[in-house]
Amino acid sequence: MVFVAALLAGGSVACGSGTKSASAVADRPEVTPAAAVARAEKNAEDITSLRYRISGTVPGRGRLEGEASMNTQPLAMSMKMSTAAAQDGNGPGGHGQLHIRFVGKVMYVGGSAVRPESLKGKSWLTAAPAVWGRGGGDNQSYGVLPSQLQANPTEQSTLLTGSKDLRLIGTETVDGTKTTHYKGTVNSRGLIGERLDQFTQLEVSDPLTMDLWIDGDDHTKQFRMRAQHDDTFTGTGDGPLDLTITFLDINQPTTIKAPPAKDTTPIADNTQER
User: For the whole model, what pTM was predicted?
Assistant: First the structure.
């Protein structure tokens, strides 16, 4: 968080919302909600690259929207996140956008939400070791990303398999794709292993309410997570979690590269001077 306060111009971030319309998923045999969610979980294991959209509210950061791409082999992520400065024009250059990449255990941070004096004439700040998309205890983004965005979204999408009250809501169209909508609640009690790790990283209290939209190929198209912030992490109330992640492209060719070394400056060079 020292990094955020010292180097970033932005604070809270702006939110977007999608539209939904009722529409049947053609020629799909009826399955139980549990079986449908289990199929989506199984297919999530085969996702090696993903482009996805993020919108909503996260504890301590407020409202946000962004778009990201990721690879699993090797693990890498690139994200562009719009901040509140983009709404009111107070960000440097009037844009208020944060660009984040994780490549080879190095984090790169750029965009107009970074204080120009921190960049020292360069385009990117760097920090290492930095890890994204691993287990909650292994991730490290130096406070740049809220903990809820440090997880691999394909793994987050499987949390609903731990629900005891899973139910069918209906058929809806999400981003032009016909889907079936399921909903349930998840409690940390009873979760083990990776599921518990994913829940803990959200830093929320029981219960977690989760919606899952599954397309005709049994892939997750979208999921939404809502819960109250767990004050034991900070000692203060930081607002609720209400986060929606929409899968845009699955297993499409994705290249995520580190910026040229000549365009980067280490975060340590800035923090040591303060």
Answer: 0.85
